[in-house]
Structures are given as structure tokens and as C-alpha cells.
Specification:
The chain has about 575 residues and is α/β, with parallel strands linked by helices. The protein folds into four domains: about 25 residues; about 240 residues, 2-enoyl-CoA Hydratase, Chain A, domain 1 (Alpha-Beta Complex); about 180 residues, 2-enoyl-CoA Hydratase, Chain A, domain 1, CATH 3.90.226.10; about 35 residues. It is built from 22 helices and 19 strands. The strands form four sheets. Strands 12, 13, 14, 15, 16, 17, 18 and 19 form an eight-stranded mixed β-sheet that branches. The two termini are about 40 Å apart. One of its GO terms (biological process) is L-leucine catabolic process. This is Acyl-CoA carboxylase subunit beta. Keywords: Coiled coil. InterPro entries: AcCoA_carboxyl_beta, ClpP/crotonase-like_dom_sf, COA_CT_C, COA_CT_N, MCCB/AccD1-like. One of its GO terms (molecular function) is methylcrotonoyl-CoA carboxylase activity.
Length: about 575
């Protein structure tokens, strides 16, 4: 959208107006200005005199137009049957402009028709920011990866890191091109400059520049590693999927009869594997999510975070205390807390359907991006399970990689217990959560909203884990375990000996009072940095984030830790 601003304003004011309008409308806004006499015009308006279009230039332009049209008609018919967009329409959804492409003539000499070798690579802009991109063209042999297409993807990733710019991967590939005509008999998937090199690059570039993947088709075997190695993955319902082997291979090897959606469809990866950060209903929504996600991320790990003009929360921060029940066992939705803390419309939750007992989300506080890890008392009381521990560790590590401050909202009874979670690796995955919290060096703020029991406060960046501030609300309670569990553990024999139910319950309630913690006394002994009124929490976080915006990282005297994510 283009706008015209009347009157005389300085550049900073104009920029602020455009940014605020873009945020309000939810779309890119550019300034349309009147051309002033004597203004610098880098592309002078020539008249037709001097225009010479030679035959060779005309042939090149015709070739480029043919390449841009994609694969043969049958390929276009196929994407129409599947309900997919043509790759260039897909690119136009994501980017405001395509600055340039590389490798348009890749595969031009092939006997078969493989425009751009089925892989489009280049640089586009999103809200004025450059982003490098790769995009499979499904009309060209179902988006399969040819030798030149792989080479283009390898070069693109290496150049993106050099340019210190994010990579957006629009993935729609059936995998390596296996037909005999497309492969040299001496080639191998293990060669130095083949598909493996692209995965190697994704690994070593991790944490250098953001890598965002959108999955539009069923990706099998090697091609499934491209989306899974991205920092953030968006899957489109019905048409996308990923698995280490196809349903046919699975049936041949294991005898299991299963279709692609059951094997590795969006629901599987959104609710069970946790591999998908978001599942969206259509391609347009996917494009919008890419643009929104990028608005929280820097160009690279050394670049500043993108800031916007701050806005008030969608709900009044002064109503926060009423949201949190006095009974530590009573459920409530932590989103009601978050809506009173972050800027209006800025909450962007990731993995919302995976391990919902813990919320991971981006948001803004006074216009600045933050990462949020919040226990969800509305689901299994906010206890930490193996999946939620891994979900949190993954999110914390990404925020730390890209310099995004972390806010922990602690209201948990601790890690879940029992034989099932032990078999699922609650200790093994729980250590990842605690390890990530310990090693993250971005500004970290722990807010104890209500219960902080057991090792839950360790994972949630309690006082021992060097947060830059530990804040507690009046509803907070720090303890090894809750009063109910403590009484039943310590007085189980006495309780069992009381026959009268009413007398037994009275004994339990009376004894529980001995184990209740007073957060004022804990604040008195400096177990927390500050006890704040709930209605002041948003303001406190604003000021503390500002105070630590120049926090320095510390070099550890080691190669790396031994806990692998």
C-alpha cells in the first residue's frame, strides 16, 4: 500500500508514521512523494531515442520469459489438481519485491524441459528487509532436486551468511531426481557438493542467520531434512507432510499400512513430534506468518532486533491480579496474563498444539521483541513433561542465538512424576531445559506468578540460574513442594490412622498451614529481587528490558557443552 503525507516532516517523523500505519493495517506501507525539481533520479527517464533491442537481447529475454513460465503444461495441471499455487505466485505472496534471481539458466542444456532446474533462488524484500530465498518449482518434475538445483541452493545459503541476511525456504519437493537420464553414473548422494552439502550448510549456519521454512508438499527421505533443519517450520494443511520414508517404503519394510497424512502430516508434526512450529490452512496464511515471524528476528545474530512503536496491551494490566486465583491448584489460562503484558496484537505463539502445558511465544513489550516461556495452569496444572521440557529448551536456544530477551512466567508444580514420564526421558529432556536456561546469555527475567515448586523453578530461571531479575507477584510461593504434597508425604501414617473423614480432612488442612510459604518473608531474605504488585508487572518489565538492552555475552572457557539439542 502506498500513502502520501502532506506537509513538511523530518525523516524520523515520516518513518514513525509509516511504521505505525503498517503495524495498524497489518501490511507493508510505502511513502509516495512528489518529484521535486533537481531531485536525484538514479534511473533517468529516457525517451525512446537511443533504445536498441538487438536480436540476441530479444532472444535472451524470450528465454527468460519461458523459464519464468515454469515446467510443461502437465506440471501446471498437476499443481491445480493438488490445490497448490504456482511457485512464482507463491514467492509474490511472501515478498514485497524480488530484487534478483540467480541461476535462471541452470539446466538449460538438459535434453528434457527443466526450467531453472526446478529450483528458484534469489533475494527478495519484506518490509524493507532483504531475505534470501530458495523455492522448488513443482511444475518441473514434481519439484525434484537436480544437480544444478542443489548447487543453486548451496550457493544461496553460503551467500546469505556472507550478506548477513535471513533465508526463507519455500519447500515443495519429492526429493532427489532419480531417473537415469538425470543422473551421472558416477554421482552419489554422499558426494562433496551434493544434497548432503546443503544439509551441512544448514547445520553450520544455524544460529548465524534465521532460517524459515514453509512446507507445501510431502517431503520424503533426504528432502525432509531441509524443513527439519530450519529454525522455524510452517506446514500447510492437507498438502504438506514429511517423513524419513514414504508410506510405500514403510509398508514394504515394516508391513505397516499407512497414508502420508497419518505418517507425517501436519497434525502428526504439530501435536506429536513437535517438528512443526505452525500449521496453517492455506498458502496465503503461510506467507503472512513468514512475514510476521521475520518481524521478531534480526538479520543475523549480530544485528539489532527489529523494533516497532510500542502499544498498550490488549487488556488492562491493572486487572492482572484478578486473573490469578488464590488457590494454587485452581486452573486459569496464562494467555489472560500475557494479554496484559505484551503489546496489543504482538503475541505470536509457536508450537501451540504440542505440549500445551507450556507456552512458547514471541511478543513485544514497548515495541521490543521478547521470547516468552510460560507454564500453562489450564493444562495439567502447568506441570513440566518431557515434551514440554524439550519444547522450552529448543525455543530458549533459538532466542539466545538471535539475541532475543527471555521472560519466564513461572506457575508450575514442577516436573511430572511417574513411570510413564521416566520411560519418556523426563530427566534426560528436563536437563535440556535446565541446560538451555543456564547457558542462555540474553537478558533473562523470571516472574513467579504463583507456585514455583521443586525443580520447576530451576528450569524456569529461578534465582540460582542468574536471571537479570527475579520478580514475584503477591500470589507467588516458592517451595520444594506444595503444602498438600508435603503434608501427605510427611504425615501419611498419621492420616491413615484417622478413621473419621471430617477429622482427617481437618487435620490435613490444619497441617498444610505449617507448610505454606509467605512470599513477603521470602522477599525479606532476598530469595527474589523484588516483590511487585501485579498491576505494575508490565511497567517493571519495560524498564528492566531497557536497562539490559546492552548486556554483554561472556566467553566460556571451553569448546562447547555436552548437552546436545
Amino acid at each position: 500500500m502506498k500513502v502520501h503525507i502532506d506537509g513538511e516532516y523530518d525523516e524520523e517523523t515520516v518513518r514513525a508514521i509509516i511504521t505505525a500505519l503498517s503495524h495498524h493495517l497489518g501490511e507493508s506501507v510505502s511513502l509516495e512523494t512528489d518529484r521535486m525539481d533537481g531531485a536525484d533520479d538514479t534511473e533517468a527517464a529516457f525517451d525512446d531515442e537511443g533504445v536498441i533491442l538487438t536480436d540476441r537481447e530479444e532472444r535472451i529475454r524470450e528465454d527468460i520469459a519461458d523459464i519464468a513460465a515454469g515446467g510443461p503444461e502437465r506440471g501446471h495441471d498437476k499443481i491445480e489438481q493438488l490445490g497448490k499455487e504456482f511457485v512464482r505466485d507463491r514467492i509474490d505472496m511472501v515478498f514485497d519485491d524480488v530484487q534478483y534471481e540467480d541461476g535462471s539458466f541452470a539446466g538449460y542444456a538438459n535434453d528434457d524441459q527443466t526450467p531453472a532446474d526446478g529450483m528458484i533462488t534469489g533475494v527478495g524484500t519484506i518490509d524493507g528487509r532483504d531475505a534470501f530465498f530458495t523455492a522448488n518449482d513443482y511444475t518441473v518434475k514434481a519439484g525434484s532436486l537436480g544437480q544444478q538445483g542443489i548447487e543453486k541452493a548451496i550457493r544461496l545459503s553460503e551467500r546469505a551468511v556472507t550478506a548477513r541476511a535471513p533465508i526463507v525456504r519455500l519447500i515443495d519437493s519429492t526429493g532427489a531426481r532419480l531417473s537415469p537420464d538425470d543422473r551421472d553414473e558416477s554421482s552419489s548422494h554422499a558426494g562433496r557438493y551434493t544434497g548432503g552439502k546443503s544439509f551441512f550448510n544448514q547445520c553450520i549456519h544455524s544460529g548465524q542467520v534465521p532460517q524459515i521454512g514453509v512446507l507445501y508438499g510431502p517431503n520424503i527421505a533426504g528432502s525432509a531434512y531441509t524443513p527439519i533443519f530450519c529454525d522455524f517450520l510452517i506446514m500447510v494443511e492437507e498438502i504438506s507432510g514429511m517423513a524419513i520414508a514414504s508410506p510405500r517404503i514403510v509398508q514394504e519394510v515394516t508391513g505397516e499400512d499407512i497414508d502420508m497424512q497419518q505418517l507425517g502430516g501436519p497434525d502428526v508434526h504439530a501435536t506429536q513430534s513437535g517438528s512443526a512450529d505452525l500449521v496453517v490452512p492455506d498458502e496465503e496464511t503461510a506467507a503472512n506468518k513468514v512475514r510476521t515471524l521475520l518481524s521478531y528476528l534480526p538479520q543475523d545474530y549480530q544485528s539489532p532486533l527489529p523494533e516497532k512503536p510500542g502499544t498498550a496491551p490488549s487488556r488492562n494490566p491493572e486487572g492482572l491480579d484478578a486473573v490469578i486465583p488464590e488457590n494454587p491448584n485452581e486452573a486459569y489460562d496464562v494467555h489472560d496474563v500475557l494479554e496484559r503484558i505484551v503489546d496489543d496484537g504482538s503475541l505470536f505463539e509457536l508450537k501451540p498444539r504440542f505440549a500445551p502445558e507450556l507456552v512458547t511465544a514471541f511478543g513485544r513489550i514497548d515495541g521490543r521483541p521478547v521470547g516468552i516461556i510460560a507454564n500453562q495452569p489450564d493444562h495439567v496444572s502447568g506441570a513440566i513433561f518431557p515434551d514440554s521440557a524439550e519444547k522450552a529448551a529448543d525455543f530458549i536456544w533459538k532466542c539466545d542465538a538471535f539475541g532475543i530477551p527471555l521472560i519466564y512466567l513461572c506457575d508450575t508444580p514442577g516436573f511430572m512424576v511417574g513411570s510413564q514420564v521416566e520411560r519418556q526421558g523426563v530427566l534426560q529432556k528436563g536437563r535440556k531445559f535446565i541446560y538451555a536456561t543456564s547457558n542462555a546469555q540474553v537478558p533473562k527475567f523470571c516472574v513467579i506468578t504463583r507456585k514455583a515448586y521443586g525443580a520447576g523453578i530451576y528450569a524456569m530461571c529461578g534465582p540460582s540460574f542468574e536471571p537479570d531479575s527475579t520478580l514475584a507477584l503477591p500470589s507467588a510461593e516458592l517451595a520444594v513442594m506444595g503444602p498438600d504434597a508435603a503434608v501427605r508425604a510427611m504425615f501419611s501414617d498419621q492420616i491413615a490412622e484417622i478413621d473419621d473423614p471430617a477429622e482427617r480432612e481437618a487435620f490435613i488442612e490444619e497441617t498444610k498451614e505449617l507448610y505454606r510459604k509467605d512470599i513477603r518473608k521470602q522477599a525479606s531474605s532476598m530469595q527474589v529481587d523484588e516483590l511487585v504488585a501485579a498491576s505494575d508487572l508490565r511497567r517493571q518489565l519495560e524498564r528492566r528490558i531497557d536497562a539490559y538492552r546492552d548486556k554483554r555475552r561472556i566467553d566460556r572457557d571451553r569448546h562447547h557443552g555436552t548437552v546436545l539439542f
